[in-house]
Amino acid sequence: MNLKKILLISGSILVIAAVGIFAADHIDAPAVEGTTSDITDLYAFQAPDNNSNLVFNVNTQGLLSPSATQNASFDPSQMIEINIDNNGDLVEDLVIQCVFTENEVFAYGPTAPPSTGTTSGVNLDAQQVSTEITQSGESPVVGTSNGISLFAGPRDDPFFFDFERYTAIINGNESSFRDPGVDTFAGTNVMSLVVEVPKNMLGNAETLNVWATTNSRTN
Amino acid sequence: MKSFKLLSLLFLAATLTLLGCGDDNGPEPPVPQDAMFSQSDQVGRPAINTVFVSSGSKDAFNTTVPSNMKGQYQQPFENKLMALNPNYSKNALGQNAATFTTLLSNDVLNVATSGKTTFFDGQNVLTGRSLSDDVIDTELLLIFGGPDGSENPGLTSDNVDSNDKNFLDSFPYLAAPHQ
Known about the structure:
The complex is a heterodimer.
Chain A: H1 3-19, E1 39-47, E2 50-64, H2 66-71, E3 78-85, E4 94-100, E5 104-111, E6 119-121, E7 128-132, E8 143-145, E9 148-156, H3 163-170, E10 189-198, E11 207-217
Antiparallel strand pairs in A: 1-2, 2-10, 3-4, 3-11, 4-5, 5-7, 8-9, 9-10
Chain B: H1 2-24, E1 36-43, H2 48-52, H3 58-62, H4 66-84, H5 97-105, E2 109-112, H6 135-144
Helix pairs in contact in B: 4-5
C-alpha cells in the first residue's frame, strides 16, 4: 500500500467520523468505532458447493492495512453471535455463539439462546466446533464437527464501494459518481468469522431473519 | 474403615470417569459457565445504521432488539430518506416512503432456505447476501432511482461492480488477506 492510499483511507476515516455516513457498517457508531467489537458486514448465503448448507460470515475490525493485519487479533472478551429468527417475530430462536482464546475459536450451536435480547451467556452445553485461528499468510485452518465448518482469521474485505466519492457527494462537493469508480476498500483486510451449517439445523421456515451482534464480557 | 476406603476409591474412580468424559467432548471451554456478555454492535442489512440512523442515536440503535426497531426508528428513517432524496415517491419495488422505511427499520437480513440467496440479482430480491452482491448499487437504486430506476442516474451506481480479489469456490469462500 502506498502512502497516497493510506492518506486517502485515513482521510476517509476522519470523514466517516465527522459526517457519519455509509460504508456498509464499517465504523458505524461512536461506542464501537475502532474497537474489536466493530462489525463491518454480515453475509448469509447458500454454500456455492453444497445446496444443503447455509454460510454465515461476520466481519469485524475493518480497513486493516496489510501491516496492521499482522498485529490484529480476535478479542477473548468478545462474543460474536449469529442470531436466527425462524418464525417471523424478529426474536432469535437459534444462535451460533462464537468465543475466542488467544489461538482458538469456538462456535456453539445452532442452539436456543440461554436468553434472548441484548444480554446473554454462552450455551456451553450446545454442540460445538473449534479450530485454530488462522494467521495472516497461512492457509485457512478449518474446524469441522457434526457437518458444521468453522473458520476465523484475517481475510480480504469482500465489501466494495467508492466511499470517497460518496462522501464528496454527501458533502456537496460532487453531484454524481465517477465512472469507473474507485473501490475505497481495495487492499484492506478484515477479521473474518465464517460458519457453514446444514440447513436442517435451522428449522423449517422458508425465510430466516438473520442478524449478527458483537457482545462484550461483563463479568 | 476398609469400606470407607473402598467408597473413597469408588468416588475417585467416578470423578476420574466424569473428567474423562469431559475431555472426550473436546477442549476446555474458553469461557466459564457463568460468563455474561452485553451487546455492543449489531448488523442486519448493509449500511443501515450508517445511512439512516442520526448521529445521536447510532449507539442506541446497535443495542435495540430487532422486534423494537420499527417502533423506534421507522419515522426517523422516513425523515432521513426524504432528506437524502426529497423527490422520493416510490422505489423500483413499488414501495412508498413509509413501506420502504418500515422494511429497512426492521434491520435483519432475510435469507431464503431454498434457492438463490442474493441481496438483488435482477430477479431475486432480499433472499440473502452473497459475497459478490453489489449491495451499494441496490441501495442507491432503491433510494434514488424512483419507480423504474431511471431517476437521478448519476446517483444510482457507484460504478464499482466487484471486489478487488476473486472469491474462493470452497470454504471459507473469502479471499486471502492482502499481504
